[in-house]
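Sample 1 of the test manifest.
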Amino acid sequence: MVLMVFLAVMAVAIARQRNLFAAVMLTGIFSLLSAAVFVVLDAVDVAFTEAAVGAGITTVLMLATLGRTASRQREDHRPPVAALVVSVACGALLLYATTGLPPMGEPQAPAMQHVAPRYIQESPREVGVPNMVTSVLASYRGYDTLGEVTVIFTAGIGVLSLIGVARRRGTRR
Amino acid sequence: MEHNIILRVVTRLLVSPIMLFALYVQFHGDYGPGGGFQAGVIFGAAFILYGLLFGVARVQGVAPPPVVRTLAAAGVLIYAGVGVASLLLGGNYLDYDVLADDPVAGQHLGILLIELGVGVTVASTMIMLFYAFGTRD
């Protein structure tokens, strides 16, 4: 609960921040806080990923980008009414949706009934890996993970072709 | 940042433990939290940290961009190759049971190999992105 309050405070601080450098650092802290939330929810693997990717790499890449652009946001004096309406409406909708969710850790929840019991009961015998998250990710859901790796690879190639092409044209002039 | 002596000294000290930790996360993912994704990001972070402090050119001396690009593709190929290998050995695609005599040993081998593929791709993609954003004209 305390962590959630911290998260909310951090989100408001990021939105109000005009100095982009400070905003990037605050998003790093935001990621670290959400990693802490995941630890509290016993999702250690997710927390690890969030801390490494969200707080680590993303912050550094944003800083590297800021090094190439300006570090202050352009002043905009119009009150952001439309953005405020959209985000409040989205937030209210999500809050309303959480009332339909089963309580956390509920064994009768649909997500716990489908394939989870099989993973929990059979994976020590079938895969024999102590970390069940790994056995689900790498073995039972091997296709999905292959897809994720391909997505990362494709994203990297995409960035490279966009930025690389622009630079080559620049030097030719 | 390049003239800050504390950052430079601490980075020199930390880069090798960070890489060691990445390898630990990579190969201990079967037993504790972690795996290829996290390990790849940590391994890439070691290179990026060094590059931020000592310049991209010195990192590119260790990890030349063509090599990094090749490794990014190689990781995906390792992963897909494990699937093809299990096909050739008579199983379904990405069915690691057939990779060794014992299904559980096959699962261990398969998971180790595909996590390696994930780690290689993620680390080299991160370094590749850093090269793309970090090199100034």
